Amino acid sequence: MARTLDWQLATVGAIRDETPTVRSFTLALPGWDGHRAGQHVDLRFTAEDGYSVERSYSIASEPERIGEIDVTVERIPDGEVSPFLHDVVVPGDRLEVRGPIGGYFVWDTSMRGPLLLVAGGSGVVPLMAMVRHRARSGDAAPARLLFSSRTSDEIIYRDELERLSSAGTGFGVFHTLTREQPPGWIGYARRIDERMLAEVLEPLGAEGWTFICGPTALVETAANALVRLGIPADRVRTERFGPTGT
Amino acid sequence: MTDRFVTRGFVGRRGSDQGGDLSSRTPPGQYLTRDFPVLSAGPTPRTPLDRWSLSIDGLVKAPVSWTWEQFLALPARDWTVDISCVTKWTKLDMRWRGVSVDTLLEAIDLEPSAAFAIAWSDGGYTTNLPLADVLNNQAFVAFEYDGKPLAPEHGGPARLVVPGRYFWKSAKWIRGLRIQDRDEPGFWESLGYHNRGDQWREERYSGD
Predict the structure, then answer these.
(1) Domains of chain A (ranges plus CATH)?
(2) What does the alpha-carbon distance between residue B56 and residue B160 come to, in Å, rounded to a whole number?
(3) A9 reaches B (C-beta below 8 A)
(4) Which of B9, B37, B83, B169 has the fewest C-beta atoms under 10 angstroms from its C-beta?
(5) pTM of the model
């Protein structure tokens, strides 16, 4: 019999700005049984009169952290929930959470590598859990993240990614900025395409796992290209969010 | 259940864009969207139409298979249905054109023990449904959405649509129904999602 995913009360801990519009929230969960990198949680928000909504958020933190998770949330100006999380929630608040959810878009070190991660915008969040899991466990599988953002100010986890990719552990990050590049920018400066994927994939070979998360157009482009580049379809795992993500 | 937990400071938008009758059409925990979000676990498969077929096999007296042309020649009708995805969006009045599963099953004789249909798709996806959940015009195989051929990312050339269940039961890129006497969890049903997936009972995950 399957275990029921009960709602539990999380206490909001640290709240950190990742970019001007993206914020991470640490949720302390005393009854948390752990998760796998790539999984998500459901959050439920209930008003005084009983009106209630739920949303799913990817877990950003690595499974090695015990009794707490991080979620990273982009503020959607006309959203119903993300402005509440950004503008109203403060440390010490309690939120209803259940999870972890999802068993396909997951990676752990037992699956070995190499690992190609492809992200657009806040699609990086579940991939960051994989990056952090790899780093925290000391895994040596070669791994690369190709990360599309609009501008350099909008690169989520920028400093941490920089630190991890210069640590000499076989992890590399490759940025592309699609809207505006700062002076002296040496990264990519266009939407992700097959040539870019081939360049980033090349040293990894076609034997590993690929995880893609981002807007539908990016995911479609990247998944189709990776299949053409020789990755077996069941090794191309995707998670998408449309323009409605609130 | 104990006292309902109230999220401090949460008011919610309370359906400013959904009137009373619309909120009554929104299952618990869902929000209305006007978009048609795309969700799938892997790459979009692309089978050429001249190699496409739709089959029914398993516990049937004689299996049947339609080519694309034969499938399009079956009696089809328009369907306007509300769809709910387990990722929380609900989209009202989605307009499809497709062939009722009843029509497909008219072509075969079920064995008396037939009780479940396993829908299977290009790319290896599967999902399980009791026959009782798909008969009597509760399910159809759609080949048009909103007056246009169904786009590949939305499951084209043809997908199953089961409006009374969360949308993962509406198998994209469907290629066949395997009729069985016993239930067998499909792709998401094996990965923690509910076996039945009734959105009005909020059957999202195993154990709900």
Answers:
(1) 8-101 (2.40.30.10), 115-241 (3.40.50.80)
(2) 13
(3) yes
(4) B9
(5) 0.92
